[in-house]
Amino acid sequence: MSTERITRDHVETKLKLVQDELQGKVNDKKTAITTGVSIGAAIIVLVSYLLGRRSGRKRRSTGRS
Question: Rounded to whole angstroms, how far apart are CA atoms 30 and 54?
Answer without folding.
Answer: 36
